[in-house]
Specification:
two-stranded antiparallel sheet; alpha+beta; single chain; 133 residues
Length: 133
């Protein structure tokens, strides 16, 4: 299901440029172009909580959110920037694990040339000291 399908203005049958209209689902946080609603109905994937939004609102909420915000819905079901929730304990643990792995990789890459120089008896005293530091 599209979160933000990038479908701009359309040409109508007479060649006149028209603005696309959208529906927004608070439950999914997704926009649905009105021109494609039948496709979603046929696929059985059209949410039942849709509200009408115009193209200006669509583009406003398809842009990058302000810092610390994400697209959500207000009490009336319309798109709104809401606070990003704090990470769950599991997400926090995974983030720490990823950071730890990244830092260990950086250290390993920095130490490898020094270890090779020591192993080959080519290291200077400064390099040996750096390796032991």
């Amino acid at each position: 299901m599209p979160r933000c399908q990038r479908e701009r203005s359309l040409l109508d049958g007479s060649g006149v440029l028209t603005m696309e209209q959208y529906k927004f689902s608070a439950r999914t946080g997704s926009f649905f172009p009105v021109s494609m609603l039948n496709d979603y109905i046929k696929a059985g994937s059209l949410p039942d909580d849709l509200v009408d939004v115009d193209e200006t609102t669509f583009w406003q909420f398809c842009a990058s959110p302000p810092s610390g915000k994400q697209r959500g819905a207000n009490a009336q079901g319309y798109p709104a920037w809401i606070d990003v929730p704090p990470p769950t304990p599991e997400e926090a643990r995974l983030s720490v694990d990823v950071t730890k792995r990244r830092l260990m990789d950086e250290v390993t890459r920095a130490m490898a040339p020094l270890e090779d120089a020591v192993d080959l008896d080519m290291a200077t005293d400064a390099e040996k000291a750096a390796l032991l530091a």
